[in-house]
Write a structure and sequence with these properties.
The protein is of the alpha/beta class. The protein has helices at residues 18-21, 25-38, 56-65, 77-83, 122-130, 150-159, 164-168, 180-189, 211-217, 220-227, 230-247, and strands spanning 46-50, 69-74, 91-95, 107-113, 133-144, 192-206, 254-267. Helix 6 (150-159) packs across helix 11.
């Protein structure tokens, strides 16, 4: 990811909106299930879900794995307020930052569905997350890899223009931080046996091209909202919408293609 110099000048707030994110919960959930299918269940697993969001899918994972304990971790208080209703026997939710978590040898599975892309420097992040695992533990993570789609590239280009670039301090969001091949070789270097990684192209039929804006409002644009003053973010979204609709074909329904990288490995 790019440098975030000067970004600290903009106050950081919780810009996640569970209702906005959940507008497309069915479409967003399929990669979770594909990632979960890679996990090899074991009796008495202790699991952590990094970036658990509203917790519904964390609960599904906890039940499907028959885990002894599962912790859902998220930095958004709004998401955690919604997740609280999903707490269950052995399933808890707590506030925390993926970028700083440090609990060596605590888990049998480190799982993250569409969250690691928000954290910088994966060459050091992934080894640190591996340290959370016990011998024989598993890691499974999924992230968007869709930066060439107009919904992503237009936002990145706009962030580099005046007046946004001056406030963002050069920050232009790019994803994912590493090629899928590097994630696999990195896990191999860290002692995983036969790690796997692949890219899947997911297809989502939206009512119209304008619905793509609602999709990214619940995810990617929250990062710009967090970094820009309200009036400037409104102007950013207006210009983004204009460019986006000019770039997308006017098909109804509109087919949104969304590439994601899925990675799994198990320690020896």
């Amino acid at each position: 990811m790019k440098s975030r110099s000067r970004v600290s000048e903009t106050p950081k707030t919780d810009t996640w909106n569970p209702d906005q994110y959940q507008q497309f919960k069915n479409e967003r959930s399929q990669p979770f299930f594909d990632l979960l299918d890679l996990v090899q269940p074991r009796d008495g697993m202790d699991v952590i879900d990094l970036g658990c969001g509203t917790g519904e899918l964390t609960r599904v994972m906890h039940q499907r794995l028959g885990a002894r304990s599962t912790i859902g971790l998220d930095s958004s208080s709004a998401m955690l307020d919604r997740a609280a209703a999903n707490a269950d026997d052995g399933l808890t939710f707590r506030s925390g930052d993926i970028a700083t978590i440090d609990e060596p040898d605590a888990y049998d599975l480190v799982f993250s569905n569409a969250a690691l892309q928000w954290v910088e420097n994966h060459e050091t992040l992934i080894p640190r997350l591996v340290r959370l695992l016990r011998p024989g533990g598993q890691i499974a993570f999924q992230m968007p890899m869709n930066e060439l789609h107009p919904s992503q590239s237009i936002a990145a280009d706009l962030a580099g223009e005046t007046p946004y670039a001056e406030v963002l301090g050069g920050y232009r969001r790019r994803e994912p931080p590493l090629p899928v091949e590097r994630y696999v070789t990195l896990l191999d270097e860290l002692g995983f046996t036969r790690p796997r990684g692949h890219i899947s192209v997911y297809t989502h039929y939206l009512s119209e091209p304008a619905a793509v804006l609602e999709w990214v409002r619940g995810s990617m644009l929250t990062d710009h909202q967090r970094r820009l003053p309200e009036s400037l973010f409104t102007a950013f979204v207006d210009e983004y919408r204009r460019r986006l609709l000019a770039a997308l074909p006017d098909r109804r329904p509109y087919l949104l293609t969304y590439n994601r990288v899925l990675v799994w490995g198990q320690l020896a």
